[in-house]
Amino acid sequence: MTDESTILAANAAFYAAFSMGDVEAMACLWADDDAISCIHPGWPAFVGRIGVVGSWRDILENARSPAITCHEPHAIITGDEGRVLSIEMIGPLALAASNHFKRVGGMWRLVHHQASPIAKAEIHASSDPFRPAGQIH
User: Fold this and answer.
1) Using an 8 Å Cβ cutoff, are 112 and 29 in contact?
2) What is the layout of strands, in order, in the sheet containing 37-39?
């Protein structure tokens, strides 16, 4: 597998854990150190493994946790670090999302997640390398 396919698979595992409400799987996806961070829409920043994993536990164990889907993931990789940019959809609400990964022991582990509301998303496929799929108009 290429670096791009493995980081996209790690990103897909993140959204699978989210959609299944699997706290243990979510915790396993994150790097095991205190340099990780997360910013959920409308929440303050969480820094450190206890805060980040705890925030996901609060979200995933909430019966009213929203269903989120990931659209048009785009990987950017430099050495042992990479990020996946995408659009998350919560019903009709679009969020710009970035998942930052670091290769740890040969596996891509999350080190940062951030999602923020955007005005409007046009989800489409694009073959133009200078206009990535999912670009906001």
Assistant:
1) no
2) 46-47, 37-39, 107-117, 93-104, 81-90, 69-78
> Which residues have CB under 8 Å from 118's CB, separation 6+?
87, 94, 95, 96, 136
The letter for the amino acid at 73 is P
DSSP 119: S
CA-wise closest residue to 21 among 63, 72, 60, 71:
60
Hey, is 104 helix, strand or coil? strand
Classified as helix, coil or strand, 42 is: coil
pLDDT value, residue 128? 45
What tokens does 71 get?
């659209």
Say if residue 10's pLDDT is above 60.
yes
Query: How many Å apart are CA 34 and CA 52, to the nearest integer?
Result: 9
Predicted structure pTM score: 0.85
Question: CA 43, CA 30: separation in Å to the nearest integer?
Answer: 19
